[in-house]
């Protein structure tokens, strides 16, 4: 099939086994990828009424047909499970380079079930799958976890998603951290990883996705990239990243403030896009094959040391750690964001 690798990886942590299944073309056409695949798997396979933090829950990593191509904005990975936060269908997603790298291992979908007896991480590379011991990583924050894993797999091009102590301790809103700076932050799926004693998923691949009309797609991509950069529609996103949302949210009266008791914040001018750029911005990053480069990179020395390795806060973090807390200090917001990434 064009756009797909055609394989599903299933990992049973309880039995310490892995198996490979074919991705059915009918399923691909009906559910496309991402959330569609995840919802299909969970609807078909989860028993009714299970505890989201029990070994009966399943964790599904899924990509779509555009992932692995150069189509801008397509590098996304969706993770789904029954949510420990709501008890309902839970999905989160993140960008960066993990999605492309996962698909390059030859798998469109990874289904993780059961629970390991002791902490483990998955090492998936060129179609090979290893369930590796992670007892020595349990309790470590995300940066220390990633650093140690990359040393162990001896491949700095591998991409790591992991949890920190938040996920390990089953905090019901715990996140999944990818490459330290991309975050699957919704519905507590980091806690599902923790409930399975799964510290990390690590991927490295070289396989390429098949494209039906490659020359025509290349022509379309060039036109898309040109328009995205030059037609003005993404101008503020390129300049400020998602910080471009803060000031408009204040003007329109929808900026979350004081634990959602208010919808405007008198300190907005100290944490809006212009203020953040002036105070803490040191660079910009992008997800795979995206010309917009909306990811901000921040750094500070005082009053808190903030490392650029974690990227920087996006609008949601600025609102959550800023206006919702009546905090108008960009450095404090950036440091709090860094700590959230570390602890997942």
TrEMBL record:
GO molecular function annotation: 4 iron, 4 sulfur cluster binding; electron transfer activity; metal ion binding; oxidoreductase activity, acting on the aldehyde or oxo group of donors, iron-sulfur protein as acceptor
Domain Aldehyde ferredoxin oxidoreductase N-terminal: 4-207
Named cofactor requirement(s): [4Fe-4S] cluster
The keyword Hydrolase appears for this protein: no
Pfam families hit by this protein: AFOR_C, AFOR_N
InterPro entries xrefs: Ald_Fedxn_OxRdtase_dom2, Ald_Fedxn_OxRdtase_N, Ald_Fedxn_OxRdtase_N_sf, OxRdtase_Ald_Fedxn_C, Tungsten_al_ferr_oxy-like_C, W-dependent_AOR
Keywords annotated in UniProt: 4Fe-4S, Iron, Iron-sulfur, Metal-binding
Top-level taxon: Bacteria
4Fe-4S in keyword set: yes
Family named by the database record: Belongs to the AOR/FOR family.
Protein name: Aldehyde ferredoxin oxidoreductase
Source organism per UniProt: Aerophobetes bacterium
Organism classification: Bacteria, Candidatus Aerophobota
């Amino acid at each position: 099939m064009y756009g797909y690798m055609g394989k599903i990886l299933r990992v049973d942590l309880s039995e310490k086994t892995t198996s490979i299944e074919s991705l059915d073309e009918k399923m691909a056409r009906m559910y496309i990828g991402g959330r569609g695949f995840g919802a299909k798997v969970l609807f078909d396979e989860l028993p009714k009424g299970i505890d989201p933090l029990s070994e009966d829950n399943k964790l599904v990593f899924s990509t779509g047909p555009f992932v692995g191509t150069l189509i801008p904005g397509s590098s996304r990975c969706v993770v789904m499970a029954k949510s420990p936060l709501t008890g309902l269908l839970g999905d989160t997603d993140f960008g960066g380079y993990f999605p492309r790298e996962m698909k390059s291992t030859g798998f469109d979908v990874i289904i993780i079930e059961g629970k390991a007896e002791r902490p483990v991480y998955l090492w998936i590379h060129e179609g090979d799958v290893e369930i590796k011991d992670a007892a020595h990583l349990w309790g470590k924050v995300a940066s220390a976890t990633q650093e140690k894993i990359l040393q162990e797999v001896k491949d700095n091009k591998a991409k790591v998603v992991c949890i920190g102590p938040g996920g390990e301790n089953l905090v019901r809103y715990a996140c999944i951290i990818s490459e330290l700076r991309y975050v699957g932050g919704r519905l507590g799926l980091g806690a599902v990883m923790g409930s399975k004693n799964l510290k990390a998923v690590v991927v490295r691949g070289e396989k390429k996705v098949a494209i039906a009309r490659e020359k025509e797609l290349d022509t379309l991509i060039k036109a898309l990239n040109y328009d995205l950069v030059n037609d003005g529609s993404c101008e503020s996103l390129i300049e400020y990243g998602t910080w471009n949302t803060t000031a408009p949210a204040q003007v329109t009266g929808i900026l979350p403030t004081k634990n959602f008791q208010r919808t405007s914040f008198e300190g907005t001018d100290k944490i809006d896009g212009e203020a953040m750029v002036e105070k803490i911005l040191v660079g910009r990053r992008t997800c795979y094959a995206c010309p917009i480069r909306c990811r901000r990179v921040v750094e500070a020395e005082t009053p808190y040391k903030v490392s650029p390795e974690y990227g920087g806060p996006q609008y949601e973090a600025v609102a959550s750690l800023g206006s919702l807390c009546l905090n108008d200090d960009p450095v404090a917001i950036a440091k709090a964001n860094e700590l959230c990434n570390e602890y997942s």
